[in-house]
Design a protein that fits this description.
Helix content of chain B: 25-40%
Largest sheet of chain A: 5 strands, mixed
Radius of gyration of chain A: 13 Å
Shape of chain A: globular
Distance between the termini of chain A: 42 Å
Strand order of the largest sheet of chain A: 2-1-5-3-4
Oligomer: heterodimer
Largest sheet of chain B: 6 strands, mixed
């Protein structure tokens, strides 16, 4: 079973307007490789010149920040909803 | 239906010769629109000004002739032409905290007291007033925010005043007073089963789907500029000079950077002499991602799950954290965090010494300030300003159990004297002297 990847509107100019897609990636590096292949323009947007995910991107698995789940080592579970969201500010 | 694209391809734009949105990372400019992140590199956007265009306008004299509110600094705020602000927001007291200073070994300590900011008793009134001026310009009929409380209160109150609908999202464990102080203004309040970071994430998605102006999402660049007024006021009330140090509470890490931006603007425009100001950040240990980054000498913020009574600072994944950590280190400052026990002690200490009842975030700032002096990071005679950002009436639950409810006594003088002696050992001579003074 694939995972469901959800994107903000700001990214859809690189995905032919699609706000979500399925991926068979097993973990975050796998997902980024999948994006490299399927949506190369999106890949350019979310990664910096060194090929690393930009620090302004947060990735959530279901309701949890992936960093609390082990980050790149977290193994996606069947049916996981993975959201890519630009970080935003709040508070003082 | 979405009529305002986050990419700005909509009628929700306005041009202004004084300011526009700019990406600090890649330098691209975007005019003025409800947009928080650079569409290319995703970095947060900031408002950039043509400072030279206001050089003859933003002067000490013109400011002094302005109203006693943040609007005296309107030339360097992103306020759309034609917007006539009528709420006297800000221009709060800067008091010389002599009594607190004696207790913690400081002779030039000042408290910037936004516990009395108008209209909702926190510094958030500053940022919301600027954000809503733009919300109206962009034509939003509904505004909202994710909030740890103070922002909720301010958006609800000021939206009511402007006749704009408000929808406020808060963590479900928010202090009851902050919930009531939002509902009373007629705003829709939605409690979210999660912490602030969960709420914030949801608001990002809502702002993506609905044509709403979220003050700390798609209006964030404008909103954040309101924080600069704290810096302007500190400088003006010190007689147009800059302090040596500023101690600022940190949640998202925005305020501390905006105070620095204000100081830099004042220096550039010649309103104050150039001075190297050190910035000190204050957090609660139960939510201290920026403080830890500063102590470790990194800009890499590791998110935390907040666990502190200082809920208004409980942001575990602060978006401005990396920039705040870098700025603090570059300034030669430092960041500290204190336990919840110290937070309460800080609230009590500020109240007992200066008569200022601050909320838990102010307890954090006060306790951190005391520690910075104790550790020798701030010297006794340096001019230091501690920023108090909210009012204690909103977080009275933090003091629950700290003050006993005393028994009632009969309305008789003898009972009163006996009660005082029982209470704290006060004896007859004190009462007798008081009586003699009265007779004279």
């Amino acid at each position: 079973m694939p995972i469901k990847v959800v994107l903000p509107t700001a990214f859809t100019r690189h995905t032919d307007g699609r706000k979500q897609f399925d991926s068979a990636a097993e973990n975050l590096p796998g997902l980024l490789a999948d994006i490299d292949k399927t949506f190369p323009a999106l890949s350019t947007q979310i990664k910096d010149d060194d090929g690393k995910l930009r620090r302004f991107i947060n990735i959530y698995v279901n309701d949890e920040d992936i960093r609390f789940l082990g980050g790149e080592t977290y193994a996606f579970q069947d049916g996981d909803e993975v959201m890519l969201i630009p970080s935003i500010a709040g508070g003082i | 239906m979405l009529i305002a694209s986050p990419l700005g391809e909509s009628e929700m734009n306005y041009s202004c010769s004084r300011y526009e949105l700019k990406c600090n990372d890649c330098g691209k400019r975007f005019g003025n629109q409800p947009l928080s992140a650079c569409p290319d590199c995703l970095a947060p956007l900031e408002v950039a000004y043509d400072l030279d265009a206001v050089r003859g306008i933003f002067t000490r004299e013109n400011i002094a002739a302005g109203p006693p509110s943040i609007w005296r600094y309107a030339a360097l705020l992103p306020i759309p032409d034609g917007f006539q602000p009528d709420l006297p927001v800000g221009f709060t007291p800067l008091i010389h905290a002599k009594n607190l200073g004696k207790r913690i070994g400081a002779s030039n300590l000042y408290v910037k007291n936004d516990a009395v900011c108008f209209p909702t008793l926190s510094f958030k009134d500053r940022v919301v007033s600027v954000a809503l001026a733009n919300a109206r310009r962009f034509g939003f009929e509904t505004v909202g925010c994710s909030s740890t409380g103070n922002l909720a209160n301010s958006v609800a109150a000021q939206a009511a005043r402007l006749g704009i609908k408000a929808c406020i999202l808060v963590p479900s464990d928010l202090e009851p007073a902050k919930i009531l102080n939002t509902q009373v203004y007629g705003a829709r309040l939605v409690r979210i089963d999660g912490n602030y970071d969960h709420v914030n994430r949801l608001c990002t998605q809502i702002a993506d789907e609905y044509t709403w102006g979220f003050v700390n999402v798609n209006l964030r660049p404008y909103y954040a500029e309101g924080s600069k007024t704290v810096g302007y006021e500190i400088a003006e009330k010190l007689g147009w000079r800059l302090p040596d140090n500023v101690v600022v509470p940190m949640a998202g890490g925005s305020l501390i950077r905006k105070i620095r931006k204000a100081f830099q603007e004042l220096i550039y425009l010649g309103l104050v002499e150039e001075k190297h100001v050190r910035f000190f950040g204050a957090q609660a240990t139960g939510c201290s991602p920026i403080s830890i980054a500063v102590k470790q000498g990194t800009e890499d913020i590791q998110p935390q799950k907040p666990n502190t009574i200082a809920r208004s600072l409980a942001i575990g994944n602060p978006a401005d954290g990396p920039a705040a950590a870098k700025m603090i280190r570059d300034s030669g400052g430092w960041a500290e965090d204190v336990s919840d026990v110290e937070v309460v002690s800080g609230m009590q200490e500020l109240a007992e010494t200066e008569g200022i009842f601050t909320e838990t975030a102010g307890g954090v700032t006060t306790a951190v300030t005391a520690r910075l002096y104790a550790d020798g990071r701030i010297s006794r005679d340096e001019i230091t300003v501690a920023c108090i950002t909210g009012n204690g009436l909103k977080t009275t639950d933090a003091l629950a159990g700290h003050y006993a409810e005393e028994r009632a006594i009969r309305p008789r003088l003898a009972d009163f004297g006996a009660y005082l002696e029982e209470l704290d050992g006060t004896r007859e001579p004190e009462l007798a002297v008081a009586g003699a003074d009265h007779a004279n």
